[in-house]
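User: I'm new to structure prediction. If I give you an amino acid sequence, what do you actually give back? Let's try with this one:
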Amino acid sequence: MRRFVILILIVLCISNNTEIYAETDTHELEEVTVTGTRTERKTEETPAGVAVVSEEDIKNTRMLNVKNALSGIAGVSVESRSGGYDSRLIIRGAGLKARYGIREIMILMDGVPITDPDGMTRLDFVDTELIKGIDVVKGPNSTLYGANAAGGVINIITRSPFEEAKSIRIGYGSENTQDYNLVYGTSIDKKTFFTVSGSRRSTDSWRAWNQFSTNQGTLKVGHIFDDTTTVEGAISYTKADLQLPGSLTKKQFEEDITQRTTDIWRNMGRYSEILFTNLKVEKEIGDITLKPIVYFQTWEHYHPVTGLINDGGANVIGTDLQADYKHRVFSMDGVLTSGVTTQIDRAKGEKYTYKDIVTSSKGRIQYSTSDEKGALAES
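Assistant: Good question. You get back a string of structure tokens that encode the predicted 3D arrangement of the chain. For your 379 residues, that looks like this:
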């Protein structure tokens, strides 16, 4: 299956210059967002419902996953059955259709879409140790970001390769929860910089058949050619395995909330491998700033569900070509932003039966015993 999307956007942003006089040496920094209009603006001047999770908020949050950072934002609900690893995100009602994961909401990382081609996103694809801030735009934003942004946009802003970083984190908790993370960023010379990170998170969880694990590695490189030109490149790999425990009856829930489901298909899950790469350029030519982005993504999913096992994936290639023009209109400074976004998806997939099942004497399936695939299912 091939999907081709073209998005053309033009935004005119005009703001008055205001002089601010400080009476003391203490300054409170104003919240700034680039996601609401694709240009840097104060949140109170943005014509959209925007919430900003700042770098200071991130530092003060005990953040094991993105769910922790988003909790508490007005109009945003984050639900989870497994400590954030299968989080369902709802913004002003959008996202209710998903049993788990995120739908109808565009998820970006540093302005690059990380939404699965089938429209679903999982927050466990993001290495939390790299996060510097999060922009949340509430409400429809298809004009700026495409069809998957019908309910809102979340832009996760990560550490720049131009920033020095050195950190090691090791954690252990209940249910055999383990968290390991390493980040190292430095410069090769005065113009070339890089950041490398690696992490592993896993938990046995409090319910049967609900184990989770993710392994991630990221390399970001940046180069400053001169005062007007910078280039950034990034490549990241994630392997995320999530078992889905299924539902319980009211009686089962009251007897033992941690027990395994007795449904026929009791080995459901979502096992994924994802490779993200992108290249960004920022070039100033007089009053015009060009910001082209090119990205490539490979998704592989193994997804045991009710009755069948979906085994497939997709390749995604896209571009985001943006140009900002600084000018004056009626003696006021303004920025005209225009751009073209394209994305091509090529998906593949097969459906299989479950390999290991228990049947009755009459051949009726009673329940599955593993998540291994069997024969190719008839179409």
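You can read the tokens as a compact description of the fold. Here is one thing that stands out. DSSP finds four helices and 22 strands in the chain.
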